[in-house]
Write a structure and sequence with these properties.
The protein is α+β, with helices and mostly antiparallel strands and about 220 residues long. It is about 35% helix and about 25% strand. Pfam families: 4PPT_N, ACPS.
Length: about 220
């Protein structure tokens, strides 16, 4: 399927959300807005390439949404600043970037995350990312028949998408164990259960698995 196929499959299941991707090499000449270049001038070259590719994807997604071209700066925390009436999210991995946008009439929060379907580098990381309930849940599913190499990385990917969706609106940093996810492989969807005193934002999620990639989106209303 490749990353292109994953993007199209996820977009088809998230009505009103426009997703674009770009796979590139270090030598790629990626179009960038002058205002964005200024913001990224202190980044190392590899990070600057990721930044430019992500903004390219974001502008392509905005065009698909019917919005005019505009720079997409970032605030002091590095969160993209979207045009009025738009929510969006950008994710990078070396050599690939993805971005998603939607009108606020469609959803109030939107997050997207891209990961390689590889085991986490340190088993201790999985113990931090997954709650005990999630660990039991993903073991019971039997992910091998769904083509997933690393269930823990899928949980990380989905939680990153939720964080990117929720943080810009609540501006509260939360931990991995402030929420639990429930996955439904046949529908390739997941639900979010908020724990403790976190704001209970109504968020739902969808994911795709294929050719070594994991792609997750989280969207909803406050």
């Amino acid at each position: 399927m490749g990353l292109c196929g994953l993007v199209h499959a996820l977009a088809a299941r998230t009505s009103g959300v426009y997703i674009q991707h770009l796979e590139y090499t270090a030598a790629s000449a990626i179009e960038a807005d002058p205002a964005e270049i200024e913001w990224a001038r202190d980044m190392i070259p590899s990070r600057r390439a990721q930044f430019a590719a992500g903004r390219w994807c974001a502008r392509a997604a905005l065009r698909a949404l019917g919005r005019d071209r505009c720079p997409i700066p970032a605030d002091r925390g590095g969160v993209p600043v979207w045009p009025e009436g738009v929510v969006g999210s950008i994710s990078h991995k070396p050599g690939a970037s993805v971005a998603a946008v939607a009108a606020t009439a469609t959803c109030c929060v939107l997050g997207l995350d891209l990961e390689l379907d590889e085991p986490l580098d340190d088993c201790a990381i999985a113990d931090v990312v997954l709650t005990h309930t999630e660990s039991r849940h993903v073991r019971e599913i039997g992910w091998g028949r769904w083509g997933l190499a690393s269930p823990a990385t899928l949980v990380l990917c989905a939680k990153e998408a939720v964080y990117k969706a929720v943080y810009p609106s609540v501006r509260i940093e939360f931990d991995w164990d402030d929420l639990e996810l429930r996955f439904d492989p046949p529908s390739r969807c997941f639900s979010v259960v908020w724990l403790g005193e976190m704001p209970h934002v109504d968020v739902r999620g969808a994911f795709e698995i294929g050719d070594g990639w994991l792609l997750a989106a989280a969207l909803g209303n406050q």
